[in-house]
Design brief:
The chain is mainly α. It has one domain. About 70% of the residues lie in helices and about 0% in strands. Helix 2 runs antiparallel to helix 3. The longest helix has 21 residues. It starts with 9 loop residues before the first helix and ends with a helix. The relative contact order is 0.15.
Length: about 90
């Protein structure tokens, strides 16, 4: 069976998510990303390309996902997030 046809397990998914969060943490300012995305998308909406319903729907989805991530990580310090990611990745 090819690897892409196999069902992912908790042990596959969690390290991937931890690795993603770890990389995101290293880039910094992830807590401000929803605001950055909103400003970018507001500027795009003033252009001709922004006058597309599918595009607008995708932009709103990106902002929503970014806000949910920032809210989920809000109670934790950057150091706590990094430590948790390192524990999951090395497990």
């Amino acid at each position: 069976m090819q690897i892409e046809n196999q069902k992912p397990t908790h042990h596959d998914v969690m390290p991937a998510v931890a690795n993603f969060l770890s990389n995101l943490w290293l880039e910094g300012e992830f807590r401000e990303q929803p605001d950055h995305l909103t400003k970018i998308f507001e500027a795009l909406l003033e252009t001709e390309i922004g006058n597309d319903l599918d595009f607008r729907t995708k932009m709103i989805g990106c902002i929503k996902t970014s806000k949910m991530l920032a809210k989920a990580l809000e109670p934790f310090s950057d150091q706590q997030i990094a430590q948790a990611c390192n524990k999951i990745i090395s497990a």
